[in-house]
């Protein structure tokens, strides 16, 4: 669909072979293309700006060697910097705490929280032999608790029995207690989302956090979030304090710029990516692959 960054930079820079070093003007022209590629990949503008400045520092004066075309050289600088900013390869969910280890899932409605809760529960059960309990804290959407119960049946993971009329905080407290009494290794709390960030949502998340002391707080976000990704990540991180990110819908057409945006503003690792609706469609995060995808 788009011309790749390599092709674009090639037409600007590849005539320069043998000139010694890239000039400021060459780099400025190249960075214009880098900026375009990142914006097309849905990286948030403020992140694009700081990223481009970092690349500028590395690219100006970089020696042009005969064996490598200048366009390729800039692509390599951009690629390496993207990988560095995207962070570590597949950081696992940290279960290194006294049982039951509480994982709190947060995010907007429709981001894929409930689905991801089921996927993580299945993975921890099947691959790591953990005894997991899931609980839905979504009391606003009547079907939400039932949706998680059905997922639990599907992946053969226990869910906290539903008691009508309890508040999210009550359910969180009961889940941790049930996890302890039932000898569960892990309790996953699937919190309620809203269509957008608002004050009551943040207060509710903070209250749930207080009563359940989660060891991991994972922000689940749609990979197609685009320019809103920075606000979303910053808000959840400042108000609730996240420990990691899960990007869903990476099976879609999006180029995954949200991964870079959210990682850049929070400094928190992308731990997993969702690649489909099925319960097995969860993968480790590979910064190199995402960098390739962002560059197109
Ligand atoms: P929640 O409101 O955040 O709990 O979102 P849900 O878990 O109910 O997910 C909303 C929709 O997104 C459902 O139809 C899911 O099947 C779908 N979904 C979740 N994760 C993925 C993913 O990684 N890829 C795709 N294609 N669909 C997903």
From TrEMBL:
Protein keywords: Cytoplasm, GTP-binding, Hydrolase, Nucleotide-binding, Ribonucleoprotein, RNA-binding, Signal recognition particle
Keyword Ribonucleoprotein belongs to the record: yes
GO process annotations (BP): SRP-dependent cotranslational protein targeting to membrane
Catalytic activity reported: GTP + H2O = GDP + phosphate + H(+)
GO cellular component terms, semicolon-separated: plasma membrane; signal recognition particle
Residues noted as binding GTP in the record, renumbered to the chain: 107-114, 190-194, 248-251
Nucleotide-binding keyword on record: yes
Broad class of enzyme this protein falls into: hydrolase
Protein EC: 3.6.5.4
Record-level Gene Ontology MF annotations: 7S RNA binding; GTP binding; GTPase activity
Superkingdom in the source lineage: Bacteria
Membrane topology: Peripheral membrane protein
Localisation per UniProt entry: Cell inner membrane; Cytoplasm
Boundaries of every SRP54-type proteins GTP-binding domain copy: 269-282
UniProt free text on domains: Composed of three domains: the N-terminal N domain, which is responsible for interactions with the ribosome, the central G domain, which binds GTP, and the C-terminal M domain, which binds the RNA and the signal sequence of the RNC.
Function (record text): Involved in targeting and insertion of nascent membrane proteins into the cytoplasmic membrane. Binds to the hydrophobic signal sequence of the ribosome-nascent chain (RNC) as it emerges from the ribosomes. The SRP-RNC complex is then targeted to the cytoplasmic membrane where it interacts with the SRP receptor FtsY. Interaction with FtsY leads to the transfer of the RNC complex to the Sec translocase for insertion into the membrane, the hydrolysis of GTP by both Ffh and FtsY, and the dissociation of the SRP-FtsY complex into the individual components.
Family label: Belongs to the GTP-binding SRP family. SRP54 subfamily.
SUBUNIT field: Part of the signal recognition particle protein translocation system, which is composed of SRP and FtsY. SRP is a ribonucleoprotein composed of Ffh and a 4.5S RNA molecule.
Name the UniProt record assigns to this protein: Signal recognition particle protein
Organism: Aquibium carbonis
Lineage of producing organism: Bacteria, Pseudomonadati, Pseudomonadota, Alphaproteobacteria, Hyphomicrobiales
Full-protein residues shown: 1 to 296 of 524
